[in-house]
Hints:
- The protein is an alpha/beta fold.
- The chain contains six helices and seven strands.
- The strands form two sheets. The protein has a five-stranded mixed beta sheet with strand order 5-4-3-6-7.
Amino acid sequence: xxxxxxxxxxxxxxxxxxxxxxxxxxxxxxxxxxxxxxxxxxxxxxxxxxxxxxxxxxxxxxxxxxxxxxxxxxxxxxxxxxxxxxxxxxxxxxxxxxxxxxxxxxxxxxxxxxxxxxxxxxxxxxxxxxxxxxxxxxxxxxxxxxxxxxxxxxxxxxxxxxxxxxxxxxxxxxxxxxxx
Length: 180
């Protein structure tokens, strides 16, 4: 065997033996088990009904749908999306939809201090959970940001989207349909 073929064979065997990277949860998938820290701010804890807890799972949230926005605290696309999601958050908190959707952000790589600074900008009205060591982000398959997941409390994913969502009205209508 020539040296080139031997090296190529070794590289093939090395990469073939590596476990496949998990893909981010997509529509039709089931969410992986997540144990998340509660938001550090009391307002965020109250919005999610998590007062007095230190961690939570999706099943702990008292809602029919769970809306998770995976963000980067320095992500320009996340900043671009935030005004539309502020509007969406306000719309979900009114009328027949009030209390039926738990909405929070997951700050991939974000420390409590960075999340505190981010919340102080007013960009996010909904709670944001810190993930400083990318633990939850890794469990979720390390999606690029922004990445939106809507699931049920049992973990069944009913919506996913990578990137900025341009049509917030269409997303709102889709959420209403999912709740019917």
